[in-house]
Specification:
CATH superfamily of the largest domain: Spore Coat Polysaccharide Biosynthesis Protein SpsA, Chain A
Strand order of the largest sheet: 4-7-6-8-5
Helix content: 40-55%
Number of strands: 8
Strand content: 5-15%
CATH topology of the largest domain: Spore Coat Polysaccharide Biosynthesis Protein SpsA, Chain A
Shape: globular
Largest sheet: 5 strands, mixed
CATH architecture of the largest domain: Alpha-Beta Complex
Number of domains: 2
Radius of gyration: 19 Å
């Protein structure tokens, strides 16, 4: 479970997870990355209160989901038949994890990933169609087979720190055995209809929800611009972080964002400023 300043949502999400797993779960890792609120303290309290001994809380100083994903894949190196990746701001359908686990292992040959099925949100039918028709999956919930995790480790595949459109690249990797072909290989990503995740709709009357909505727009639009750079490279040549690419986007900002309206341009520019500032701080340390 990836958590960045999720103190307000964590109790609901962890309780919901706890109620929808079974005794086949080995460990639940909470990857608290760059949190400046009391996410970790809240997690410790929940762990004690519900006697969730399998919960391991890991603090990662850098607030970057790609870095946290890399850390789990290459540093923790836990072995299991299926590795679930989830966000800390969603809740899960009944018996979600056992059902997805059994579905993944019952499929022969074993796919790389089983997608969590989106069950709420605006444009729901469209996002569901991306799963059913294009073999996409979302970072809110997906499970990866042990064979696929080993494939990633053997290939030394890492996500660049500062990459914004993570789901797109993870989907491409899983569907092509990390070859990033121009077409999907068959049966690499599967799903179980009706088994997945949901989240509360954002409210235009809540300041935190407005901030979250703006951040999503900025991540999505910047991610599409970043994607062009990485698509023109072999993934073995991807940079460790996106700083140089982000600087190039800034230097040619008007050209790179000419397809965007004023508001989206502004949000992308502000996000680039924050990313470049944080990369400088990381380099200094």
């Amino acid at each position: 479970m990836f958590a960045y300043n999720e103190a307000q949502n964590l109790e609901t999400s962890l309780n919901n997870m706890f109620n929808n797993i079974d005794d086949r779960v080995k460990t639940v890792y909470l990857l608290a990355n760059g949190c400046t609120d009391n996410t970790i303290a809240v997690a410790e309290t929940i762990k004690q209160r519900i006697a969730f001994s399998k919960l391991e809380i890991i603090e990662i100083k850098l607030g970057d989901k790609c870095n946290a994903w890399n850390h789990y894949i290459h540093e923790i190196k836990d072995d299991a038949e299926c590795h679930f990746f989830v966000d800390a701001d969603v809740i899960f359908s009944d018996n979600c994890f056992p059902i997805l686990y059994d579905t993944l292992l019952a499929t022969n040959p074993t796919p790389n990933v089983i997608a969590g099925y989106p069950l709420s949100g605006r444009n729901l039918e469209f996002y569901q169609s991306l799963v059913t028709e294009r073999s996409c999956f979302y970072g809110n919930l997906y499970g990866a087979s042990q064979a696929y995790i080993e494939m990633i480790r053997k290939a030394g595949f890492h996500l660049p720190i500062g990459l914004n459109w993570i789901d797109s690249f993870l989907t491409k990797a899983a569907n092509t055995d990390i070859q990033f072909l121009d077409h999907n290989l068959p049966n690499r990503v599967i799903y179980k209809k009706g088994v997945g995740f949901q989240f509360e709709s954002l409210s235009p009357f809540k300041i935190d929800d407005i901030k979250l909505y703006k951040n999503r727009i900025a991540r999505y639009e910047l991610g599409k611009i970043q994607e062009v750079y990485l698509d023109n490279m072999n993934c073995s040549e991807w940079p460790e972080n996106m700083s140089t690419i982000n600087q190039d986007i800034v230097s040619r900002f008007e050209h790179k964002t000419k397809h965007l309206g004023f508001v989206k341009k502004y949000l992308v520019k502000q996000r680039l400023k924050r990313l470049l500032k944080s990369s400088l701080l990381v380099n200094k340390t």
